[in-house]
Design goal:
single chain, 18 helices, about 0% strand
């Protein structure tokens, strides 16, 4: 029976249910992905305020990340996912309710960052539950499927969001997103997770030194210590921090380019962003083959380099179809890099530390995101989208090539990573094996 489960993801009922409800949630997410910037632009006409909302949301995510991993490692992870879904449902539902009577921008500046905080809690917990649903050797395939389902949902989502926004306004699209979070929370009731062994269950003699006894600060720093000691995760975190700084505001820049520079409407924005997410779908098919054939280092460095080239080329064209194709290329590349990065972290991190390591990883590499979003959108308004895209693209290529000078290029093959994940029970053993 165990062998059957290990060789077939589709025989795992909990994985199937989880895949379906996350696809539905992704469909709703794609509505807000388009609707929030459009609502800000409709209300203010300012790309700078679009960047400010994005930046504030990033700050909320960073603050939440300080303790999200501690919460994910302490409490029932399925209930945390449900809590995050319910909270985002209520917060997003508040926007259309308020907009019936007035259009106060302070609601956007309050609600959207709060949803960003709950999104961070969900994302950290989400990463920790995948290894509790599938077998260790199935992690990269499961992540590829989940990423692919996200792509399927978001291929149609931005188009629908653009059409809904054009016909009924961005507020209606936000209301649809709120409804999908409610359905996702209900669906999580059907998912069962394997319990995560605590260190004390295997090595009781280390209990007194466990980071759980160091308070919230000690627990968060346990994730940091693991990242800093790992020869691949350490440089990966630093380079991703720079990558996020450069690219965090690119969606706002693309929307501004299409609407303000090229004079197209909301429907065109939806079509372009939908075309872009096709790249995410393709990435889910390619990533397992690329990592198996090339290894982690070559797959990650090559894909980030391709992303930089695509961003740079965005500044050289005024053709909407070409912008859509370049967006697809950019998301294909970042999709491969993202799946490889998350899978490696899940493979080499012990289960009881995975929440804290994930929170430390995301908090660190998203820390520059708000500044980057504000800087890139302000630069786009001041110097033009074309020059900013060329500068950002060149910076991303430099970040990727820097990886050749670090442990990233020497990362172990995925088969060894899977064995490490199965064998490791402490942060130290996982670090040494990588």
């Amino acid at each position: 029976m165990g062998e059957t489960v290990a060789t077939s993801l589709w025989g795992n009922r909990d994985y199937r249910v989880f895949l379906v409800i996350q696809t539905l949630s992704a469909l709703g997410d794609s509505f807000s992905f388009v609707a929030i910037p459009l609502l800000v632009l409709h209300s203010t006409g300012s790309v700078v305020q679009m960047g400010l909302v994005t930046g504030l949301t990033g700050v909320a995510s960073i603050v939440t990340g300080l303790f999200a991993g501690v919460i994910a490692d302490r409490f029932d992870r399925r209930r945390l996912l449900m809590l995050a879904d319910v909270a985002r449902c209520l917060l997003y539902a508040l926007i259309p309710l308020v907009w019936v009577f007035a259009t106060p921008m302070w609601v956007i500046y309050t609600v959207v960052p709060l949803t960003g905080g709950f999104a961070m809690l969900f994302q950290v917990t989400y990463v920790t539950v995948v290894p509790a649903i599938v077998e260790p050797g199935q992690i990269i395939r499961a992540n590829a499927h989940l990423y692919g389902s996200y792509a399927v949902a978001t291929v149609g989502g931005p188009t629908l969001a653009g059409l809904v926004a054009a016909a009924f306004g961005p507020v209606a699209a936000i209301g649809i997103d709120a409804a999908t979070f409610a359905v996702s929370a209900a669906g999580l009731l059907l998912v069962r997770l394997r319990p995560t062994p605590r260190p004390a269950e295997k090595e009781g003699e280390e209990q007194e030194h466990s980071p759980e006894h160091g308070g919230v600060r000690g627990e968060f720093l346990a994730g940091f210590r693991f990242l800093w000691a790992h020869p691949v995760l350490r440089p990966l975190t630093v380079l991703l921090s720079l990558f996020i700084f450069l690219t965090h505001g690119m969606t706002d820049v693309i929307i501004f380019r299409i609407k303000e520079d090229l004079g197209h409407g909301d429907g065109t924005v939806g079509y372009v962003l939908s075309a872009g997410t096709i790249g995410t779908f393709v990435a889910s098919f390619l990533v397992a083959r690329l990592r198996k054939g090339l290894g982690f280092g070559a797959s990650w460095i090559g894909s980030v380099t391709l992303a930089g080239v695509a961003v740079g080329c965005l500044g050289l064209t005024g053709s909407v179809p070409v912008i859509g194709a370049l967006s697809a290329t950019m998301l294909l590349a970042t999709g491969v890099a993202g799946i490889c990065s998350m899978s490696l972290r899940q493979e080499v991190t012990p289960g009881h530390l995975l929440g804290r390591v994930t929170a430390a990883f995301w908090t660190t590499h998203y820390s520059l995101g708000p500044l980057g979003a504000a800087a890139v959108t302000a630069a786009a308004a001041g110097f033009g989208v074309a020059k900013v895209c060329l500068a950002v693209g060149a910076g991303v290529v430099c970040v990727a090539l820097s990886g050749t000078l670090t442990g990233i290029v020497r990362a172990e093959p995925p088969e060894a990573s899977s064995r490490t994940a199965t064998a490791s029970s402490t942060p130290e053993s996982a670090t040494e094996s990588a």
